[in-house]
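anyone seen this seq b4? input:
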Amino acid sequence: MPEITLYHADGACSFVAHALLLQLGIPFRAVAMRFAADGGGLESADGSISTAAYRAISPAGYVPVLVVDGEVVTEQLAVANMIAAQANHHNNSNNDNNNDDDDDEASGFLGRDTLSRVRVVEWMAWLSGTVHAQGYGPLLRPMRFVEAGRDDVYPAIRAKGLATVEASHARIEARLTGRQHAVGDQPTVVDLFLYLLWGWGGRLAHIEDMGARYPAWEGVVRRAEALRGVREAAAREGLGLFFE
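predicted toks r here
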């Protein structure tokens, strides 16, 4: 079995990879990261990895980062694909009978047929590129979008980010209406991402009454919270469950 390391931050977008690894039962080493005191980037929570050392691993300096036998993989969808591939390898190497059910679960989190796999890519690209990067990015870190010293425009940048988040929430609710899961009739990595974003909506965007506003989304989140990987990742990251 390859040596696998996940660099993650509690409650960050890397929760998706963390939950998927745990859901699929893949052995891995977790390295918790945090923002450095100087605001210059991420460092390990135990202080053993500096911001500079982390950028040597991943120049962007973000999470998640998955390292598999020295190969560095970044970006949500790429990381999810690598995790699914490692799950299949793990199942095949540890099961003489080649349990197809385990392989199906790993592959199923990326979609179970051509159209569902395309839909997973579509969802993940939008959640990462629009909801996260264009919504929560400016809302939480406006300094990334202007030159140094322009804190006078931070309120406008934050307002634009919040507007993107709220518009995205409406789109998520519309797409989930009448559905049990985001894609197909089984959970996928999209459900894990939507679970995380549900929490961000209340905790980071300070949107009240998420359940009343988005009942279809809440249903998907409730089903995601029943997954062992979600529950264990939440426990390891010190996050409370939404519905207990």
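The longest helix spans residues 114-140. Strands lie at 4-9, 29-35, 42-44, 65-68, 71-74. kinda curious what u guys think
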